[in-house]
Structure formats: C-alpha cells, structure tokens
C-alpha cells in the first residue's frame, strides 16, 4: 500500500508534468490580449555586427574567424546611444512595444550576463548594459519590453553545430548539448529576473538543425515551462516557421503577413487562433547595412500595418541602429511619419481585431465591438460592395470627415458609395453595426 502511494506521489510530482499540456495563466491571457490590442511594435537588431555595417549575418556570410570576430567587441563603444531618445522616438512612432536582440546568432550578449564574458559589459570599453537602460526607459514611457533570443550560436564551442556558422574556424570536438542548454537556460533566467516584466521572449534559429539526418531535440517544452514558471505572463514566440509547439503564446510570420508567403519563410499551413505577429524590415536587412538604401516608403509601411491589423495581427517593424547608437535618418523619418498617421487614425487600429469582412484586394476591415472600419487601400471605383447582411448595418460615415456615406442594401450585402474618390493612403469608412 505504502509502495503504491509512493509511486503515485512520484508519478504526480515528476512524470505527469512531462505529459501535461500547457495551460496559460490568467495573467498570460491578459498579456495576450494586451499584445493583440497593441498592434504595433519596433524590432531592434543591434550588436557588434553593426560595426561591420553589412547585416547581422556578416560573420557567417564572410566566414569571419570566431576569435577574430571578438575584437569587434574590443572597439564597440556606441558614444551616441541614448535609450531614452530611442524609446521616445518609438513612442512618437505610435509603437506600443519594442523587441530587442538580447543575443543574436553571433553569440554576443547585449546585456550583462554571468554566463559568458562575451557580453557588452565585460567585453567592450562601453561597459554599459543597454538592455537595462532600455528596460528603464520603456518603464518610464509605458512601452512593453520583448527580448529576441537566438537559439543558435556561432561563437560557443559547446553549441552543437547546425547548418550555419560552419566556416568560422571553431574546433568541433567540444560540442556539448547539455552544457549549451544549461547556458541558455541560465541566461534566460537572468533576462527574466533582472529586467522587470518581459512581455515576450522571441526565439529564433531552431531551423539551424532542420536539415539534420536525425530530428534535433531542442527541449523547447521544458525551456518554455521554465520561462512560464519565472514569469507566467511572459508570451513565448518562436520564429521557427513551423506549426506551433505546446507552450507558445503567439504565432510569428517573417517578412509576410499571415497567410501570405512571398519571401518564403512563412509557409505555416495553419493560422493560429493565438495572437499573430509579422516582423518586417524597413529596408532589406535587419542589422545595420551601410549600403542598403532600399527603404519602403511611409505609405507602404502604413499599408502593411493596416493590412496586418485587418488580418488580425501585429506589425513588428525593424530598425537597425548604427554602431554609434544612432538610428539611421531614413528610419527616423519614416517612424515619425507613421506616428503622424497613427495619431489621426490610430483609433481604427489599436484595440481592434480583424473585422467581419475578410481581407480583399481593395483592402481590409478592422473592428471594435459594433464599429467596423473599412480600410480602402486600393480602389479604382467610388463604390464598394461589402458582403454583410443589410440588416446588420445601421450607418456609415467617412472616419476622418464624418461625412455620411450612402448605403445601398441588397439581399447579399451592402454597397457603400463614397462622397469622393479615395485618394488617401488609407481611406477609412466607419460603419456602425446593429
Ligand atoms: C531570420 C534571420 C535573423 C533575423 C530574423 C528576424 O531568422 O536569421 O537574422 O534576426 O530572421 O526575423
């Protein structure tokens, strides 16, 4: 009898949690809602790679020796870095959160960590923990803080080699998964204990092992459990481009809106019911690239933000700060312009969900309770047919001018007739539903 009881206790304590499905806590569900309400965040790719001004993959792309690469840290001293100025700019842009690279594929930690001296405080003459400064600035200005964290590593010798970072001269005889896994978990613990509330951990890089002969086990559910035990509200997202794994709280799309796959990274078959996020570059690169001037114009960025909202997702728009800590002028200009647009039209974006009329070539709809916002992004006509039962529609006005919009109800929907031809980047009609 005693044996049976002991076995039962052992099972409940150690075995059953392994099979247990993840159940988000109430604070996690609240964080998901807040995240979806926010709709717009800024992604920041910044590291010692920024000094080479050729994107964040430069070490891999140019086969830079892993020891030689560390000398970038010896010279990293971003004299113009001002966390408060960054956060004020992002706020002016209308962003509600930031996602900053805490450690990218090059293995360099942009925060003070006790796990590896290859970090911004111990290995650079700058000696400042920029994540700490950003966390404090976010707190002051009311922005939520998310950390990007790379699962793959081109620096450490214990990282089990994947398909990238193979020509950086690392000895291959010291690979040790357990040691590397312990290292990551210890760093994640630091990130979740020393920087206040982290609204999201944004993982990237598991695809490094996607072409292995044997499936590679990253032990993600255990890692996710640790994260949720430290900060239950922390949202977990993983840029693995695959079906969601138990323990994840949001679904990520790279360079494409949910359901689109022009860049080839977002072939996920199912669009999740969880909050969605599309991360997107402003030019062609994530990390600072001195010759990449191929910036999207502000209209394109606004359209992406609107279309993301209409597809029930957030836009995480990237900036790649320069090595001196300044954000490139082209990015600053666009951020201010997006902010000016949001100041006028933000009500139709923040706190909305994808509307009852599905996305179409002409645009998208967003909705808050009984208010439906029709975002006309591309329409040759002055009239637009919406497949909503006529009984449901009470009235329609132009969002900006409040001018009435005439409605023609038919059996299978309503046609709205605009008082003037749509020429704004986004012409918004506000419909009140019954
Ligand atoms: C890709 C790249 C990485 C970048 C990320 C952002 O996974 O490997 O450099 O940080 O996309 O979405």
Please provide a written account of the structure:
By secondary structure, the protein is of the alpha/beta class. Strands 5-4-3-2-1-8-7-6 form an eight-stranded parallel sheet, with helices on both faces. It has a five-stranded antiparallel sheet with strand order 9-10-11-16-13. It is globular. Strand 4 (200-204), helix 9 and strand 5 form a beta-alpha-beta unit. The mean pLDDT is 95. Helices cover 28% and strands 20% of the residues. The site of alpha-D-glucopyranose has 8 residues, from loops.
The radius of gyration over CA amounts to 24 Å
Which architecture name of the largest domain does CATH use?
Alpha-Beta Barrel
Question: Pairing-aware structural class of the strands and helices?
Answer: alpha/beta
What molecules are bound to this protein? alpha-D-glucopyranose
The CATH first-level class of the largest domain comes to Alpha Beta
Question: Which range best describes the helical content: under 10%, 10-25%, 25-40%, 40-55%, 55-70% or over 70%?
Answer: 25-40%
Helix and strand pattern: HHEHHHHEHEHEHEEEHEHEEEEEEEE
